[in-house]
Design goal:
By secondary structure, this protein is mainly beta. It is built from one helix and nine strands, in the order H-E-E-E-E-E-E-E-E-E. The protein has one domain: Beta Barrel (Lipocalin), CATH 2.40.128.120. The protein is about 10% helix and about 65% strand.
């Protein structure tokens, strides 16, 4: 019985999670000026997968993605100037926008604020 209630609770949470499936275009102001990134999200329940592309880092796979209500978190791996790094993203979904913060895993850099808009 306890397992059935837990399962129902998990499905109920997934039903209330924002659906970000699809393509999103994001912009941010970085240390060297304006940046753009495209996200293609696939959502199954609370799990988020997909890929992202930018002119600076090329294409990256979305890893460890999770939806919790209107909050999305995930990581991507990339290479900047020959240095491998992992970026942590956390975003809040608000209608047709997601407001993200990205940071280099383990510190060592300034957080970057992104605004992503759904592509129709």
């Amino acid at each position: 019985m306890k397992r059935a209630i837990t399962t129902l609770f998990v499905f109920a949470l997934a039903a209330f999670a924002a659906d970000i499936s699809g393509t999103w275009k994001a912009t941010a102001e970085g240390p060297n000026g304006s940046m753009e990134r495209t996200f293609v999200f696939k959502v199954e329940g609370a799990k988020v997968t997909g890929e992202t592309t930018s002119s600076m880092m090329g294409k990256s796979t979305i890893n460890d993605g999770k939806m919790d209500g209107d909050t999305v978190t995930f990581t991507i791996a990339g290479n900047i100037g020959g240095n491998e790094l992992k970026l942590n993203y956390k975003g809040k979904v608000s209608g047709e926008e997601i407001h993200f913060t990205s940071e280099i895993a383990g510190g060592g850099g300034q957080a970057i604020e992104w605004v992503a808009r759904k592509v129709h």
